[in-house]
């Protein structure tokens, strides 16, 4: 990732991609105290647009606030920098990664005295779980790793350290030949994927776990709104793994994963074993929004040059 042409934003400056280095004694590298975002830019008929940029940037600042990391940039500056990084790298579509991390001024668990740095990179990134996954669905395994307890870490923060749990689960699932892991909470109820929220369809009703130990996904929020606009009942409540086994449809949502159907969980076929009709309806509604084909949700798009 580091050896490529391009421009990155670092602490207010646009710098060449290859020179965006950090010292090995960077505090966040040692202790995982950093927060980040994942944002997508899509090509629309009227040019490139970033999807729900404001909400992502607000969540970045909320994550930093939760972890008491002072951020020396305003929401507006960070939004503008993300647009500029996409434009300066001549991306028509891509993935944007803002990262707030603590520098190399000090070592030791306490971050006091370490300076906050903010970096923004953007690069082309196609379907996270593959193009075929969006149509055919993926195979998922319930993880032997439990999702974070909300009193062990702070799950509303999209924090780097939280992702060790995600990596362990994803490694385990993919090593066993599955596409992705599904994590349960400390009480054994469904929480989320390693980088996705989850939805279940039963008899036309859409269910999604409450957010006690899952990230407040922006794609999740978009899907809830799109479903409600189509008269679909959406219920947020605890879901057990065996409810999923007998669901009509299950799918993951996330900025990277977009809307990915799940066709099998723990070797149980879900529904017809392929993308279900409601999943397809919401997936296509989502793609209409991100690609600028849904006039009612134009406010979710920030066009380059806006
Ligand atoms: N849960 C986790 C753990 C994630 O990493 C992500 C990706 N950011 C999500 C859920 C989905 O969030 P969003 O839709 O905002 O990308």
UniProtKB/TrEMBL annotation:
Official protein name in the record: Branched-chain-amino-acid aminotransferase
GO molecular function: branched-chain-amino-acid transaminase activity
The EC number(s) this enzyme carries: 2.6.1.42
Keyword Amino-acid biosynthesis: yes
One cellular component term from this protein's GO annotations in UniProt: cytosol
Catalytic activity: L-valine + 2-oxoglutarate = 3-methyl-2-oxobutanoate + L-glutamate; L-isoleucine + 2-oxoglutarate = (S)-3-methyl-2-oxopentanoate + L-glutamate; L-leucine + 2-oxoglutarate = 4-methyl-2-oxopentanoate + L-glutamate
Keywords: Amino-acid biosynthesis, Aminotransferase, Branched-chain amino acid biosynthesis, Pyridoxal phosphate, Transferase
């Amino acid at each position: 990732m580091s050896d490529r042409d391009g421009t990155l934003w670092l602490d207010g400056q646009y710098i060449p991609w290859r020179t965006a280095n950090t010292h090995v004694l960077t505090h966040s590298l040692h202790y995982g105290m950093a927060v980040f975002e994942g944002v997508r830019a899509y090509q629309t008929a009227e040019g490139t647009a970033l999807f729900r940029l404001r909400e992502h940037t607000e969540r970045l600042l909320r994550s930093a606030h939760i972890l008491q990391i002072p951020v020396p940039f305003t929401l507006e500056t960070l939004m503008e920098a993300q647009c500029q990084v996409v434009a300066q790298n001549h991306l028509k579509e891509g993935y944007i990664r803002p990262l707030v991390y603590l520098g190399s001024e000090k070592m030791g668990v306490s971050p006091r005295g370490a300076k906050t740095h903010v970096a923004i990179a953007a690069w082309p990134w196609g379907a996270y779980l593959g193009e075929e996954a969006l149509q055919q669905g993926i195979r998922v395994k319930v993880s032997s790793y439990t999702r974070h307890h909300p009193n062990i870490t702070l799950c509303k923060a999209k924090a780097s350290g939280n992702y060790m749990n995600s990596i362990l689960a994803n490694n385990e699932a993919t090593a066993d030949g599955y596409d992705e892991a599904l994590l349960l909470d400390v009480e054994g109820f469904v929480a989320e994927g390693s980088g996705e929220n989850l939805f279940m369809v039963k008899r036309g009703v859409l269910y999604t776990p409450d957010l006690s130990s899952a990230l407040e996904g922006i794609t999740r929020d978009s899907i809830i709104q799109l479903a409600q606009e189509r008269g679909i009942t959406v219920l947020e409540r605890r879901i057990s793994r065996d409810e999923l086994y007998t669901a009509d449809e299950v799918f993951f949502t996330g900025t990277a994963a977009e809307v990915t159907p799940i066709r099998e969980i723990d070797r149980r076929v879900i529904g017809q074993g392929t993308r279900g009709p409601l999943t397809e309806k919401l997936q296509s509604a989502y793609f209409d929004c991100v690609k600028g084909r849904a006039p009612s949700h134009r406010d979710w798009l920030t066009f380059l040059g806006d």
